[in-house]
Amino acid sequence: MRRFLLVAAIVGTATVAQAADMPDFLRGSFTAPVARTNWQGFYIGGQASYGAADMDFTNSGQDLLKKLLNNVDVEQQFNISSWPLQNKTSTQNSGFGGFAGYNAQWTDVVVGVELNYIHGKFFNSNEGRQSRSFFFPDDYFTTANIHSSSSMNIRDYGSLRVRGGYAFGCFLPYLFGGVALGQADINREADATIRYNYIGTQIPPKPSFGGIPTVLTDDANAHFIYGYSGGLGVDMMLFANVFVRAEWEYMRFTAPVDTTINTVRAGVGYKF
Prior knowledge:
Layout: H1 2-20, E1 41-56, H2 62-68, H3 73-78, E2 88-106, E3 109-136, E4 140-166, E5 171-198, E6 215-239, E7 242-254, E8 258-271
Antiparallel strand pairs: 1-2, 1-8, 2-3, 3-4, 4-5, 5-6, 6-7, 7-8
C-alpha cells in the first residue's frame, strides 16, 4: 500500500510539472500579436486626378449691368440688372499634383494636417440676353436690351486640410475638411441698349442713354479664388514607409462665377 501511494505521488508531481511547462495556447490563454503600422511623421507624395467642375454663370454679370444702368429709369423701377441671363455649365478634365503633411498617432487614431495641390484645366463659358418693353405714364415706352457673357478657366487649385483617421493594420481610412484655394482667369462683359419711344406729343425726345457707356468689361487674369473643401480617402502602407492613396474631394469656390469641383485621385507617397 505504501508503495502504491509513493508511485501515485511521483506520477502526480510529474504531471503538474509537465502542465506548468506546456505552451500558453494549450492552456487557452494565447493572444496573437497585433501588427500596428506607424503612420506618425512627415510625408510627401504625388497624385493624378480626374474630375468635373460645375460653373454657375447665372448671375455672373449682374454687378456689371448694375453699374452700367445706374440712374436709368427702367433699372430703378424694374431692376433689370437682376435678370438671369446665363446658365449653368459643366466640364470634365484631368490633372496632376502633389501633397505634403504631418501625422500624429495615438495607438490606432491618426490626426494630421496636409497641403494638397492639383494643376489642371477646367474651362467653360456662357452668354445670354433678354429684351423687354416698359410703358410709362408720360406718353412713352422704353425698350431694354441687355446682354452678358462670361468665361472661367481654373488652372491651379488645392486645399489646406485637417484630416482624421483610424488605422486597421496597414490601412488608414480618413475624413478631411479645410480651406480650398485656387487660381483662375475670369473674363466678363455686359452691354445694354435702352431706347425711348414716344407715342404722344412731348418734346424734346428723351436721350437714348444719357451719356452712360453701353459696354463694361472685367478681365481678372490669375485671379485668386477661395472656398472650402471636404472628402474622404484611404492610405495603404506597402513597404519601407511607401504608401498608396485613393480619395474623393469636393471643393466650392466663391467667385463671380460660383463653382464646385468634384475629383477622384490616386497617388503614391513616402513617410519619413
